[in-house]
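Query form — protein Calcium-transporting ATPase

QUESTION: What is the three-dimensional structure of this chain?
INPUT:
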Amino acid sequence: MANNTADHPPGNSVAEGNHDGDFGVTMKELKDLMTQRSAEAVSKIQEEFGDVQGICRRLKTSPIEGLSGNPVDLEKRQALFGKNFIPPKKPKTFLQLVWEALQDVTLIILEIAAIISLGLSFYHPPGGNAEACGQAAGGVEDEGESQAGWIEGAAILFSVIIVVLVTAFNDWSKEKQFRGLQNRIEKEQKFTVIRKGQVIQIPVAEIVVGDIAQIKYGDLLPADGILIQGNDLKLDESTLTGETDQVRKSLEKDPMLLSGTHVMEGSGRMMVSAVGLNSQTGIIVTLLGSSEHEEEKKVKKSKKQGPPENRNKAKTQDGIALEIQPLKSDEAAESEEKEEVKQVKKVNVTKKEKSVLQGKLTRLAVQIGKAGLFMSALTVIILIVYFAIDTFGVQKRAWLAECTPIYIQYFVKFFIIGVTVLVVAVPEGLPLAVTISLAYSVKKMMKDNNLVRHLDACETMGNATAICSDKTGTLTMNRMTVVQAYIGDTHYKSVPEPDVINPGTVDILINSISVNSAYTTKILPPEQEGGLPRHVGNKTECALLGLVLDLKRDYQPIREEIPEEKLYKVYTFNSSRKSMSTVLKNADGGFRMYSKGASEIVLRKCSRILDAQGQPRIFKPKDRDEMVRKVIEPMACDGLRTICVAYRDFPAEAGEPNWDKENEILSELTCIAVVGIEDPVRPEVPEAIAKCQRAGITVRMVTGDNINTARSIATKCGILLPGEDFLCLEGKEFNQQIRNDKGEVEQERLDKVWPKLRVLARSSPTDKHTLVKGIIDSTVGETRQVVAVTGDGTNDGPALKKADVGFAMGIAGTDVAKEASDIILTDDNFTSIVKAVMWGRNVYDSISKFLQFQLTVNVVAVIVAFTGACITQDSPLKAVQMLWVNLIMDTLASLALATEPPTESLLLRKPYGRDKPLISRTMMKNILGHAVYQLIIIFTLLFAGEKFFDIDSGRNTPLHSPPSEHYTIVFNVFVMMQLFNEINARKIHGERNVFEGVYKNPIFCSVVLGTFALQIIIVQFGGKPFSCHPLAIDQWLWCVFIGVGELLWGQLITSIPTHHLKFLKEAGHGITKEEIHKEELTEDTDEIDHAEMELRRGQILWFRGLNRIQTQIKVVNAFRSSLFELESPQSRSSIHTFTVHPEFVPQSEEEARISEETGSEIDFLPESSS
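ANSWER: The structure tokens for Calcium-transporting ATPase are given below.
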């Protein structure tokens, strides 16, 4: 073995043409090698390379000296084997974001209406002999109108463009912020490698294949590697495999080390064999689809080669739902070319499962659209029928050929009036209100430590009914600290001052802690002024070092005096030993051993204990039992981990003990102290949890810790309240209760458990995912649950993705967790989640406020336009005026109402949940109530206004006459009423004081005043384009007075109790339980609901009506049961299938990924032969 580190002669390797450059091994060989585990890996290394040294030789690296660090060599290695960097998903270009924003249903409806209206405004058929054809009622529109006709279409398009640009810009800036955060985090990670025989720390991204890395307890491996030398090395590979048991690594049994796994015990050196995208984490992240280009490569690859599994498309970061499913049938293979094209296209269009609000808004837009379509069709029909009867019936004219163009012109005019009614009916401001509200909230949430990655998560959070939170780091500080101690026969409830303890005892305690702990564990000064000191390494050891500092001493000088090389023997901590011991050789030839470990284990081995004078006294079993009862149990009940610190002297006379007889060595110890360590609850958490409970949100704690600690922390946080019959389960018990004999999860069983469950201890990532999925899919209880989840580990990825809102930890979280999350908590703090709930509810309320205002305008405008058109053959509100009311005011109103700041009172009501309608009964009462007031006023003015104001009537004026005062007053009153109603719309739960907090919202005030000023300008100086005649001051005062009447009327409406108005319908429901079953049959359930699907297919929803699909669904529903047996598994990937047919475990992309990551025992569906 002398040539252990000798380089492979370069001639050989180059001669073998298939090898990469000068190295004797290709990336593919290394990649294949890394897929092997344990014994297979060992035999494969022996077959192909002889031993690990053989690989080192081929990679031209020395196991002892490491790489030379020559920049040319490093670059070459990066070129051949890749960089240790997982490229983030290519950010979407601005144009892609614009295209995505254009997919909104309401916008599509508007675009269609605008284009029709534009086209018609330019259509001027040649005029015939008008006299002969009869002057039909209402006449052709006057010049002003015809010239201004195009303004309407153009203005609608303009509003659409603004909405799209605002949306796209928001997404883009949000993405940029997120990248900034990512880059900052990435630069901070460093790792220890050996180069030129020197141990140095380099940024993780600079590690190359062939580097020799030092690994130790507590490390997160940044790349895949092969073990060269290890001492007692154990890894936690649960992040990749889901197996919670620690895996022992050794050269003989299992030398494969995988990136993303944690070193739980021991230390060693590894040779890096795969980095970046070729490492195990890289491969998983590629599967999660965070590298788009990888996907496209895959798409191409899968055409050329490989089993169907290669064709699986992963779900990309924004939750683009592409099922990970093998293509099943032969036809599928043929249609593959088409399939690929489709998939690539589909990427840009699909969204994450619809957020609760989006779903409700889409449904509402469709409902409003239907109503508008109906009204406009009715208007056109009535006008045409009236025209026909009047012209051909009453005037008894014949249809002459030369009159055809003129009649067509009439019909076109009627059609334009119809389109005007439709445009007025559709709430254009709605998409803008949603966007503004979300964008405003996201910006402000950044200040509250919430980095929102998916806009809709913000509003979904307002509907959350359950939060499943981690314990460590979220509810607690993730800083182990010593809070109680038993030293020298005294139980101190807080850390004692050093002068109250015997100095000899203090010395021995300080020495024991300083030497008998990993030297890599340190306490560093805080990064920011006034911050907490940073804990590096093992958290428990940090707590003990913290105790040293609390006793006003320092551990560093002792470590410098006794460097690691001087430690005679170390028994490292492991799960069976549950203790760590370090032996030092004394000057006189004797030995001293320091031990520390779990108190129940170490105390059993103690035969003496130091008393108050610092002298050892006998410690009998009965003393021990008393100590357990009086000291250890009370500490455990407070949720503390108890650690016993002890020592033992071996006199020189007795000679050197046999260090291998561990049981004999670890006995006859002398106990120095017992300390109670806890991860303290963050001081602000109990209040935050109480707020959540008041707000109707159930907080559940899911932790890997033991059940006693979990229960104690849960009680301190207020998750468990005394006298309540809530469940605390361990993972094992939880699984026994929810799985049937075959080991499958049954929804019915889960439904019995989760409503009462508050703490799930010793849980695996799979348990977390099962719980989250079970709560989301559950249909018990009055409303369906909306679940938020917090997670920090790679293994939390699936649960974070499955949850309605996934919170990842910004500080402690791994990249995989952040990638799968919707919101990142930049301070890892539970209180920030409560802030997110507040903002989410605020968004929801803002949109409801806006809807209440907008729909009142719409109802009134549609009815006025409709009746006006039918009675006077012309709309009293001209198209341009309608547009001013409809577009400009609504856009401004959306700005005013969507930027209301949240108040604490939002947390005093229950969450709305998935099924609660957007427009509640109270809101419906307000909308209809105000509409009644406005309609009475407008019709009174329209038909009797001229008498009241003593002016000329504006009705039936001849064509092309100048604008009348009469109609200007009608228009002005209409606008004034909207303005004052905007103030009413600030409250949606029937509160009386509509001015409350108005001064806190400067945007609102400026919008109301600004609109008022603009209205004055339009009326006084608008002239012909706006069909306005300047008004006198007394007329203005009357208009304002009628407007103020809105506020008084609002008080009157508030006095009517809502529960008496049973006849009022709510609108904008979420998806109801019955419809969940209907949905199963539609192929892309997770993508879009019926409304949008229909739209996407033909994008002409309005001319189809939705009734057809509903009828079809009813029919299909009847056949569902028989159909289910015949269906191919592909169409079974609906998220809800499982709730109805538990016997099918659908292989949704979620579970396919878990099977990748956790190797869990999900039975996949059999391949169907169809």
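ADDITIONAL NOTE: The mean pLDDT is 76.
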